[in-house]
Structure formats: structure tokens, C-alpha cells
Amino acid sequence: MKDGVIDEPNACAFDPSVLLCKGPESDACLTAPQIMAFKKIRSGPRTTKGEQLYPGFPPGGESEWAGWVAGARPDQSAQYILGTQAMANIVFQNAAYDYKAFNVDRDARAADNLAGRTLNAIDPDLSAFQKRGGKLILFHGWSDPALPPMATIDYYRGAAAKLGKNADETVRLYMVPGMQHCGDGPGADAFGFAPGLPPAEPDPSRNMSAALERWVEQGTAPSAIVATTYNVETTHRAV
Predict the structure, then answer these.
(1) CB 3.0-4.6 Å disulfide test: which of 26, 45, 76, 119 passes with 71?
(2) Is residue 178 within 8 Å of residue 60, measured between CB atoms?
(3) Where are the domains of the chain?
(4) Structural contact between residues 172 and 138, judged by C-beta atoms closer than 8 angstroms
């Protein structure tokens, strides 16, 4: 695409099998085991019985800085760091935990039992929050390499279903094409200020926090929010 951004990754039908090496392995193609791993990352983790545990990652930001490989080695990626360190330090509290011994049935259940009860924020019933006049803005970058964006979409759909026809009076969801984990990536930034410069007076039409503040304090619900990408070197608006 001209701007290098996939607006609707869920509508992108890409079969990585087209990248299969026709000859010797090289950086320009993938081996059969690599394609299998690629497909598993896309589809998300499942139990040995085929039960979906969590969404997979959509296409769009794999090769960007801070993408699937954040540095020179795969073990510098956000997926690797969050996955291994969460299991070692939060779930099992054992710095010597070996991720290669991970068992999807046993350890996923252990994660829920040992850490999930404290850390999970997955209950979609926001009825009490709504009764107190609460307002919630959710946003997620479509190219987030750390947390699958579909998880946020699934939560929003669950919350909206619980709240019914008045759901948009309480919760709004914004998906940011091309944005990685809270920023960066080939797309735009959702925060409304240029990197390296002091933030200007927040504009509710361009800034999530300002939009939420106006919604709560003035009762003006947000509609579209303009995301902007900046030339980091010159801090001039690029798009």
C-alpha cells in the first residue's frame, strides 16, 4: 500500500505459504517449520484439545522497529520479553523458569490460578460502572506486537453486549491503524503530541485523555479522533 499501513488487518487474507523457500534457505523466504510457527502466531494459542486461549496477532507491524524483533535478536522482542518474564517473575516467581518447558494446558491454567485472580481485568459487566456515570475509552494499535488487538475488541464487544443499546453512553473503542504498543509503528500516534516537544494544550478531537476529560466533565461524548504521525527528526507533521 502507498502509506505502508493496513487499515483493516482482519480483512487482509494473507497466506504465508507463498513465502516458502523454493531453493536454499535465505532471508528472502521461509522454511516449512517457520511458516508453521508464523501461522501459529497468527492464529493464537490453543490447548491440545483445540480450545482458543487468546487471539493471535494480525498482520501489519512485524518488521517495524519494536515489532516482532525489537533489536538484533528475537529475544529482544516484546512478545519474548513479556511472555518469558511474566511467567518467570509474576506467575511462578522463579527467575530460573525455562520457557522451553512451557506446557500450554498446565501452565496457562497455572497463570490464571496464580496471577489471573489478581491481575485479570476481563469482566465485561460494566453495569455498576455505568450507574455511577463512568466513562471508558478503549484504544489499541492494530500493529501492537505485545498484546493482540483482537483481545481488546473482544472485551469491547462483550461489554457492549452487557450494556445493551446504551453502551456508547459508557464505552467507546478506537482502533489505530499501524500503531504498535501505545505508539510507534508505520501508522499514526493516538496521543496528539509530537515526540520531543512539550505537549500543546490537549485537543479533544486529537487527544484521548482530553476527549475523556471533556466526556466526563462536560458530557460531550467523543466521535472521531484524529490520529497523527510525526517526522521524529523534524517534529513536523507528516500526515
Answers:
(1) 76
(2) yes
(3) 127-237
(4) yes
